[in-house]
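Q: Convert this sequence to structure tokens.
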Amino acid sequence: MQKAAAGSREAMDRLYADLAPPLYNYVLRLSGDPERADDALQTTFLNAWHGRASFRGKGARPWFFVIARNAVFRHFPGETVLESVDSVSSATSPADEHQATELADRLDEALARLSADTREAIVLSRLSGLSLEEIADLLGVSNGALRVRLSRGLKRLKEELEL
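A:
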């Protein structure tokens, strides 16, 4: 990131290759729409390039996630839905695929019953590769508050799935 901050397009290309997949998954979960997610991802990297001088060395990954979150909330105010994890299955038979799809649907429904704050914390903790401290900073809460939110949210999610 230091090289990208100094203006190296090659360094920014490497950051894009490393960070685009988890950032895309995150903005897709926030926006609920692949086209909006593409737009938000492009905006994220454009904003990062234009604001590279403001990078202060705390870590590229959390810095990019903050930019991505801001891009989604600025471009789609009031429209974020925080979608759940896609059903990515390694099922080998139609029965296995059907079972995986049913489980993904149940997970989607259970996540939908959680508050938006709790859903976002769970999605970030499972998909972003950020530490709990970085997620707490991104969400603007203390580490303790995040841990409580995750613990309660995962407990509630488990209860919802057991019904």
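The domain at 2-75 is CATH 1.10.1740.10 (Rna Polymerase Sigma Factor; Chain: A).
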